[in-house]
From TrEMBL:
Lineage of producing organism: Eukaryota, Metazoa, Ecdysozoa, Arthropoda, Hexapoda
A GO MF term: oxidoreductase activity, acting on the CH-OH group of donors, NAD or NADP as acceptor
The protein's name: Alcohol dehydrogenase
Keyword check for Oxidoreductase: yes
Family according to the record: Belongs to the short-chain dehydrogenases/reductases (SDR) family.
Keyword presence, NAD: no
Keywords annotated in UniProt: Oxidoreductase
Coiled coil regions, renumbered to chain: none
Recorded superkingdom: Eukaryota
Gene Ontology CC terms, in alphabetical order: cytoplasm
Organism: Photinus pyralis (Common eastern firefly)
Amino acid sequence: MSLKEKYALVTGGARGIGFACVRELLLNGIEGVSLVDINVKKGKESTALLQSEFGPLKVLFLEADVSKKAEVRDAFRESVEHWGHLDLVINDAGMVSEQNWEPALLTNCGGALQGTLTGFQYMSTKQNGRGGTIVNVASIRGISPNMAMPVYSSTKAFTIMLGRSLGAPMYYDHNGVKVITVCPGKTTTELMLSSASLVASSGLHPNTQAVHVETLNGMKSQSPQEFAKLLMTVLDQAASGTVWAIAGNKVNQIDFSSMDQQCMLYS
């Protein structure tokens, strides 16, 4: 997709994949980006860094906790008031919290859902928008679970089905808004590097940490920057409702057709 005269909002944009996506959008000529994050200190530092590289008028920092609906709505409203338009949303904010799981559900599931619904609100051609694209960042673990991280894997499976559902032709044809889901593989972010300490309780099984480390060691890693570059390729070719794996510095569309056909047999 052409990013000329387009405006984006990226949640979880202060670091990791989110920050890399903001920077890659700017490298590809987007007019302006709202960087949304709960971490004010890191958000302001990242915004200042990007402004020094791309100019002070290209990036806006907005504080928001995506687990809180009102804060998500306020961030979208402030972004549109500042830029005048919204054309692209990347819902990247997420967390790992296996033992204290309620915040993970609210952030990973609630944040993706509220970001998607609010994206429709501002971009739908039925509501004075000019159409657009929503990208929900799930995980390869939403397709093939990490047994040591059942909560995280389940939240990412939710994100995948959310995108497949709201990305269906009936919604795209009516609103002019694409919904695309991307599933990163092992990506060298702070979240990934600290995840071994956040796995499922040893009360469920004594070897959860070892299983998690073994799972990660068996995967080829990629940098957030490599992920973001491949995301631009997905934006160019992806149809609404599709799901893409960006793993091992490669991109592939996930084919659910055989699964869908099997489900039809049982319906």
